[in-house]
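Running low. Invent one:
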Amino acid sequence: MEHLQTVCAVNNRSRILLQDEKYKIQGEPTEAALKVFAEKLAYNRGADGKLPFKTSATPFSDQISQKITKVATLDFSSERKCMSTIINGYNQFSNNVVLLKGAPERVIEKCNSVTNNKLNKIPLTDS
C-alpha cells in the first residue's frame, strides 16, 4: 500500500489546504481525492505516529516530498490518459522511479514487469 500511497501523494498537482480548521482543495477534485486517500492511509497506518494532522492537511505528502527529488513530470492529457512523475531517492531504489497513474489499459500497455510487495521484479505477460 505504501507504493500506491506514494503515487497518490506525489504524482499529483492538487493541494489540500487547512484554513480556519476546514479543509479546502485546490485543483481537480479527482486529484484531490487521491491525495486525501494517501493522507488517510497514512493516518490509519500510523505512519510513525508523528504526522501533524492538526497543523497540515497533507503531512504524509509533505514528509515524502522532503525525501525524494522530482526529476520530471508529464501531466495528464486526454490523449495520453495518464500522468507520470519521475522521482529519485525513493526507498530502496537507487535509480529514478516512474510514478504512473491513469486509465488501466494505458498503464498496462506501458509496463513489462511489476514489482511485488517484497520488491521482486516479475515479468508482466499477456496471461
Remarks:
- The domain at 2-123 is CATH 3.40.1110.10 (Calcium-transporting ATPase, cytoplasmic domain N).
- Residues 84 and 100 are 5 Å apart (CA to CA).
- The mean pLDDT is 87.
